[in-house]
Amino acid sequence: MLGKSIDGKILSGIVMFVAIMILIGWVAINEEARMQSFVVQHTGRSIERGAELFASLCAECHGEEGFGQGDRAPGLNNPHLFGYDPVGEFTAAITNASRALVRFNDEMEALLSELTDSENPPSEERQSEIFARIDELEVMIEEQDAIVAESVAARAETLNQLSAAVENGLFPQWENVTDIEATTAINEVEVFFNTNGTRLAQVGWAGDLHGYIVTTLIHGRPGSDNVWLNSEGMIAWSQTAGGPLRHDQIEDLAAYILNWDKGSAWTSEDFMAVQQYGKPWSDGSLPSEPPPPPVGDNPLRILETLQAEAIEGSAVSGESLYDAKFGCTDCHRNGASAPDTVGTWTRVLTERLSEPQFAGYSAEQYVVESIVNPGAYVVDGYNSGLMPADFGTRMTSQQLADIIAFLKTQE
Questions:
Q1: Taking the model in full, what pTM does it have?
Q2: Domain encompassing residue 364
């Protein structure tokens, strides 16, 4: 019998081994697709649960289809919220062409100055080069002027098509922008669209849309009843802030709202469907400068920027950011899920920097790396992956400097 002889047993073992390896290989090949399928199913169920929560809790103010209601709450099924700027390509073209014009005109002025320099006149050969380059620059300036004129006209036409949306709050105070025909690199139009082209730019949010939605749901909008006159204001929905919803329910709501995103397929009709756009600030004012860029995730470059720009941190502001805006206290208070806030700076100086992997580090470099790249090093006794890894995209240089200043007080 095959199963009773030594050769048979060896053959059976080989067959079983090969079969197991084939099975393992098949599983490995198909694991990514299988996991992706689970992700899709999980996301789908989350969206369905979020739809039920939205219908029962949010639709009364934000509208059943998320288009908002007049002076009650803004639309969330909204291309402006999702970062689609209907005039973005025209504004970018105007900006780029305007900057090119500045360079070309500066070069033209320098060439003319060289050509007319009586004390050090150019040679005949150099004069020929200058005249040739001036001819090239005149053509290039004419091309860029044409781009600016065409883009300004296209942007004005698009805004005219969206006039009803503007009346519903899209691009608030656009009528106050006076330098519409400007062609310089820095002007009212450029600043306006840099700060109003998308909702996140409008409110100066440096993170992503998911973080903006979740944070808003968690904390609500204190004082929003003063902004939306037909509303009693948006409450804090998360249980962590005294509201009724668990965090998984907050995520379900966020998933449902994010499911409205059409990417690059938004149309002017979608803008017109929104009944109420968000307001920029509680007093109706607008920022005068583009929002500052995020700090990034390169610790050495961050420190160079702080030094080069002479950015000084405020411990008072840093404490507020640490406790409220970025929620660091939730995990670091009393060492609940992360090293205790109290004594942070002393531990960095006396314990962390004495470890061999931090040879050459300053205390500031260690703290910056811990914030913008928390997975690079995890203190013994704590789990990795708990601290958000996106602070580099959510913080500005000033905010990070403020937090460092606050942590320096934790001796």
A1: 0.56
A2: 299-407
